[in-house]
Amino acid sequence: METERLQKVMANAGVASRRASEKLIIDGKVKVNGGIVKELGTKVSSEDVITVAGRSLEREQKVYYLFYKPRGVISAVSDDKGRKVVTDYFAEIPERVYPVGRLDYDTSGLLIMTNDGDLANKLMHPRYKIDKTYLAKVSGIPDNEALKKLRLGVKIDKYKAAPAKSKIVSSDQKKKKALVSLTIHEGRYHQVKKMLAAVGYPVEKLRRESYGFLTLQGLTSGDYRPLTREEIERLKS
Predict the structure, then answer these.
(1) Residue 6 gets which letter from DSSP?
(2) What is each CA distance from 196 to 68, 74, 114, 131, in whole angstroms?
């Protein structure tokens, strides 16, 4: 049976932040199966009964969604400037979900939304090198030399980006614009925009088309769907 640290279970259930949950434990406010627990790192399973200050802990079921984020939406659960955030689209569901990673405000495309913190952390860890494919509308039509630089790994800021798969999907000679497909496994800030700007082709519009084996197929901007059991298992493995 799967077990998790008590403070993590409390934080995931929305009792308090993990640090505040630790204080509640230390202060003797938390009981597991009727007994006060003051030791941090105590492991609990789904069968344990947890009470915090006399109230039973309601544990959320883990949920997983694939979301087509529109442009002009923040990849966050709240925004101090009052702008639209991704969780606004999930007001109908009872669980509190959050995005795995982020997409820029003006970038649209595929985001995974979940309340499974373990899976989210693993998916974002650089060690796993999950391919993410973006479709970029750029100013100008990249030549073979530019595409080759992207494939070898272009220098941006003070680091060299990992080699990317790159190809022109379509081009408009009259308007001097092109659609470029770029596949990367890193996820640094503004990375795709910076890579294309570094080879001389600034991005005008950007959409994330796929995340690993997941695609936007069947969704329009602002839509979401639950992941299938098979998809969840594939992500976990």
Answers:
(1) H
(2) 23, 23, 31, 17
| 142 and 194 together in one domain | yes
Is 104 labeled as catalytic in the residue annotation? yes
Selected catalytic residue, list 104, 106, 143, 223: 104
Residues 52, 27 share a domain: yes
C-alpha pair distances (Å), 37 with each of 8, 9, 50? 14, 14, 10
For residue 45, give the CATH number of its domain: 3.10.290.10
Q: What is the pLDDT of residues 40-55, one digit of tens each?
A: 989 998 889 999 999 8
Enclosing domain of residue 192 = 131-211
Q: Contact 191/185 with Cβ under 8 angstroms?
A: no
CATH number at residue 105: 3.30.70.580
Q: Count up the domains in the chain and report the number.
A: 3
pLDDT tens digits for 92-106? Answer: 998 888 899 899 999
Among residues 62, 61, 13, 21, the alpha carbon closest in space to that of 42 is found at: 21
Give the pairing of strands 43-45 and 177-184: unpaired
> What residues form DSSP beta bridges with 181?
135, 167
Last residue of a domain, one of 56, 75, 100: 56
Q: Give the predicted TM-score (pTM) of the model.
A: 0.80
